[in-house]
Amino acid sequence: MKSRHFLALAGAVCAVSLAMPAFAGPTFDAIKARGQVVCGVNTGVAGFSAPDSRGEWKGIDVDICRATAAALFSDAKKVKYVGLTAAQRFTALQSGEVDVLARNTTGTLTRDTALGLNFVGVNYYDGQGFLVAKKLNVKNAKDLNGATICVQQGTTTELNLADYFRANNISFKPVVIEKVEEAVSTFFSGRCDAFTSDASQLAATRSTAASNPDDYVILPEIISKEPLGPMVRHGDDQWFDLVKWSLMAMLEAEEYGITSQNVDQMAKSDNPNIKRILGVSDDMGKALGVDAKWAYNIVKQVGNYGESFDRNVGAGSPLKLERGLNALWTKGGLMYGWPIR
Amino acid sequence: MAASPAKTGAQATAAPIPRPPRGVFWNDPQVRGIFYQVVALALVGTLVWWLASNTIDNLSSRHIATGFGFLGREAGFSIGEQTIAYSPADSYFRALLVGVLNTLLVAVIGIVMATVIGTVIGIARLSKNWLIAKLASVYVEVVRNIPLLLQLFFWYTIITEMLPAPRDSLNPLPGWFLSNRGLKFPIPAHEFAYDLAMVCFALGLVLAIAISHWARKRRDATGRHFPGATVSAALIVGLPVAAWLACGAPLTFNAPLLKGFNFVGGGSLTPEFMALLLGLVIYTAGFIAEIVRSGIQAVDKGQTEASLALGLTKGQTLRLIVMPQALRVIVPPMTSQYLNITKNSTLAVAIGYPDIVSVANTTLNQTGQAIEGVAIIMAVFLTISLAIAAFMNWYNSHIALVER
């Protein structure tokens, strides 16, 4: 009797294992059911993503997470942040630990294909540079022959660095460290002659981590193209669309002058584009599977792209970065929102 | 030993019991035993199959690349220190090999140093000198009870923050420079005399081993003593020195020279390597000291007394009576410590030493093939650990009590 029960149980277990679906359900539905967007962010780069003194995450990448939550749940606070190192980030996104990766990540062909991920759009155009101590008297990157250079592990930076020195036929010694905070403190201890990373991150490091920012300079050379932006994994186009258009809505809002301050007046505007963006005349949210007021909620709660830039990395922040390539196309930059219609 | 009489007793009583009358087959304990094993095997097999097929399905549904084809592709990143030639133009395979060799380097040197330091401190804990014994116990208690990662950060910070920049290096010996870029020291320039000396050193080592074997055999057979240790030492030191003198005793060194940002030439130990080695050795020596102490104390006091009564000196007693018996207690837990050193070396990634985990992390990040990368790390550590365990098991059986 006992063994017959056992046999039946074993059979049942086998049947269940065989019948289990071999893939996870679509991300979009899972997020909706969960009531929260899980967003992978940097463990701490001022201006991009870092917790402030009250423990709230702030930054231009964090605003992407908040915008998607505002579009999906009409509440920008419905985000859970997961701090990831460069080496952890893709595995976390591939395995479903996070829904979207907004962690100053460069889009490359390999990442967009072989890693099983999709690059959604660009929220910051960056390039790799070098930070050095002023007293070394280094004027440009080619003077760094024989230098020891601190670099964070698992980044395109690591590859660009090797490429640049190979191309210029000069040598260097890398010190590769997993966490950006450790890499930065190792550089400031004097272990390395230079620290290399994206220029925006260098500016953040110089202004927030150096004991005296004036002792350090960022070299003029930008040795790479780094289009940074959010990524999602393959397999759910609806979720991809929502993240992409949340970013577009922020860009479009800036172009049409809609800000978090004037969004309510703008909703009464006669401009058909503005009416469409804010969901007054036409329901664009239906196609995305969200509320008609999705873009209104983004602008109201997070702000447009320009506001996010100024608050986190631009004139209104300690970093004081120029808009440069990140200005709207109408102002000589590369930021170009697609039409919401 | 204590278990064996009970065991034979149980066997003796079990034998005469007659087999119960045969009923239906599922009441036969043997049939049941086989059945349960088959079921357990099937369950484990199903689980493994389910996990594997799930993984493969998930990977292909998300179009994630799989397989080990990436090993042949160009790595494109550089590695801070290497024991074999490597450039970013080499393949991922060679990059990983550099990582494995770096891990082995720190593990092997770490094991040797931790054993020496641990043994000295373990014996010091038993010293009759109050101060030495107390200092040794303080050492053990302090290093054993602070997490290794913290100790690594501590040593790394000491080296990088406290030491001066290369241009104001400390210069403890002529040609030796200590700075926050590490220790730079002169190495013998490549010359025939040095090569010959190295060959003679190896030759001396082989001869010494052969002589000690022969001496032991002769002693077992005839009881006559041969001063093997003295002769061996003379061979190992004397042969290379003689070869060097015969070549005219050249003294050319390749000394480090400050040039640009850093020293050029000579040998060097990086801060990452020094911090990792220091941290591993000091931490593990604390555990080894306790193992050595407990091993020595496990030898019955009567053994020492008997040995002294037979007229052996204190040194001979320790060397010939106490240590051989203590080793049998010491070796098995020592194996665990050797494995721990090897496995703990993976903490290198925190302070930037390019061990296998660090290189594999970079690799899996650039190729996106996390499963393959982690599988490689696991295979490497399994191989190294099993090799250490196999060697220690061999050594353990070698020194086991010979029963005559």
Would you kindly provide a written description of the structure presented here, covering whatever features stand out?
The complex is a heterodimer of chains A (341) and B (404). Chain A is an alpha/beta fold and 341 residues long. Chain A is 38% helix and 16% strand. In chain A, the strands form five sheets. Chain A has a five-stranded mixed beta sheet with strand order 10-9-11-8-12, with helices on both faces. In chain A, helix 3 packs across helix 9 (237-255), helix 3 (60-73) packs antiparallel against helix 13 and helix 9 crosses helix 13 (294-301). Mean pLDDT of chain A is 88; it is low at 1-25. Chain B has 404 residues and is mainly alpha-helical. In chain B, strands 1-2-7 form a three-stranded antiparallel beta sheet. Chain B has a two-stranded antiparallel sheet with strand order 3-4. The longest helix of chain B is centred in the first third of the chain and has 34 residues, at 92-125. Chain B is globular. Residues 1-12 of chain B have low confidence and may be disordered. At the A-B interface, helix 1, helix 4, strand 9, helix 6 and strand 10 of A face helix 2, helix 5, helix 11 and helix 12 of B.
